[in-house]
Write a structure and sequence with these properties.
Layout: E1 4-8, H1 12-24, E2 29-34, E3 38-39, H2 45-49, E4 57-58, H3 59-64, E5 69-72, E6 75-79, E7 84-87, E8 94-95, E9 98-101, E10 106-107, H4 114-117, E11 118-119, H5 124-139, E12 143-147, H6 151-163, E13 168-172, H7 183-196, E14 199-201, E15 206-209, E16 213-216, E17 221-223, E18 226-229, E19 233-234, H8 238-241, E20 252-253, E21 266-268, E22 273-274, H9 287-305, E23 319-323, E24 329-334, E25 340-346, H10 347-366
Parallel strand pairs: 1-2, 1-9, 2-5, 9-21, 11-18, 12-13, 12-18, 13-14, 20-22
Antiparallel strand pairs: 3-4, 6-7, 7-8, 10-19, 15-16, 16-17, 23-24, 24-25
Keywords: FAD, Flavoprotein, Oxidoreductase
Family: Belongs to the NADH dehydrogenase family.
Cofactor: FAD
Length: about 375
Amino acid sequence: MTQHIVVIGAGYSGLAAALRAARRLPDARITLINPRAYFVERVRLHQLAAGQRLRRYPLSDILGTAGIELVVGSVRTIDTERREVTVDSLDTPVPYDTLVYALGSVADTSTPGVAEHAATVAGPAEAQALRDKVATMARQEGTLTVVGGGLTGIETAAEVAETYPGLGVRLVTDTEPGAGLSERGRAHLRRVFDRLGVEVRTDAKVVEVHSDAVELADGNTMTTDLVVWATGFGVPDLAARSGITVDSAGRIVVDDTLRSVSHPDVYAVGDSAAAHHPDGSPLRMACATALPLGRYAGDVIAARAHGRSPRPLRFRYFFQCLSLGRDDGVIQFVDAHDRPRERVLTGRLAARVKEAVVRGATFTARRSGLYPSR
């Protein structure tokens, strides 16, 4: 009987898992379900928000050579007992023998006022809507407040400030920007923000967003024309609603082969998986995590289909990439557990390395390679 593998989500991890499984299991039927008909370079969405054009990669072109069936639509339910998923664009459920859950992450908008008054760069539609608002506000020389001192907030603030030098850009964070970087990396951030005119407010925790201001935990407020919420990400609740065991953040709890601990025919990859190092420390939400996990999941599924025991996941990080506009950046070298080393690359060289890494990730995620005839 032909094994039917269904992958939901065509981001870096889902696309990599589908293509890897297609290569390893030429006789399997593989279906990829995604809300959009094209692959999104999510790590470039801050560039889209700043007004740059991003290339679209049609999934039909990527999947055709591999013989993978594409369904454009959103998965509404997963019936783990009947082993089928319902899709809003189909009249009948899609059955599966093996399910790969790769829905990624979404902006955490649980803070009061965020959903009503703040923009995000969590998805292409949100980034595009923000692009239009920023362009309008720049003509009015307004003020943009980016909340969040992580990589997403830093990249968004720098990109927008470089593109629109007449726009007031403020970065608000309850810690120091780039807290996960080395001192050399953080020092470079400060110099770049000074050069770009980005106002940085640290030790400022935003507890509520209003239409024209953000309210801080100390009771003070800061007026603004627009808020970009870039602090914290959540995950869709589909897995939890489907009875699959998840952690406190809603991510699927997996074993050391990325298989659900509650449903052995379900695998989770990317941001929606609570994957971890052998010592139990978690892997971070990032393209650098998602892409290798997707490829690994394809290998694991193929190994079990051939009656072999897969090797446990062994994962290590090498560096973090951070763009600061088009001609500056930080490449932070890290140890296997993503802890910063003192060594960094900065400036134009770092920007070129970051661009090469992003292009390489997209190439790896969408490469078809040589597939057996189907």
